[in-house]
TrEMBL record:
InterPro entries: Papain-like_cys_pep_sf, Transglutaminase-like. Gene3D superfamilies: 3.10.620.30. It comes from Paenibacillus thalictri. Residues 30-138 form the Transglutaminase-like domain. This is Transglutaminase family protein.
Amino acid sequence: MVFSIESDNLKDFLPETEELDFSHPAVRDKAAELATHAQTEIDFVQAAYEFVRDQINHSWDIQSRRVTRKASEVLTYAEGICYAKSNLLAALLRANGVPTGFCYQRLTLGDEPETGYCIHALNAVYLESHQRWVRLDARGNKEGVDAQFSLEREQLAFPVRTELGEVDYPTIFARPHPKTMNVLANNEDCLQMYAHGLPTEI
């Protein structure tokens, strides 16, 4: 895929924001811990990605009603939907100076268009050592979902089925899309939100 980068300035993909609160002690300490065990930039990015993918539960998978939004909340409670998990991964990476953005897909909520559509969030990471962006999906693996860290072949959580009206948006955003953050900020029951309240397009 040819990406459309929201900004040509990599510094725009580094700031702390309300949702990416990497100066929070818990986020700062976890980022430092992950970096301590990494020999290279690639090692660190992969470690952070696999931590969020594997150690942070997807709220729907565990049927949790808790809504998390800020990176510190996602880390503290070890759960969140894809919008929240992408915030945590971005915060961990940005805390160590790795430019990180946000990407989106429009997917069917179930297996067929009749189930409706929702927006799915993932990250794009700029690897200085390779001088390019790579997309990583930390949604969390389960039966039928096998996202992996790979520099050779992109392996995301969900293949986009254009014949069913699904869309792989090419833009790499510097901040989480407002529609995704608004839905987290304005809901208190994650299961209701996930089933009926997610945005359907960006």
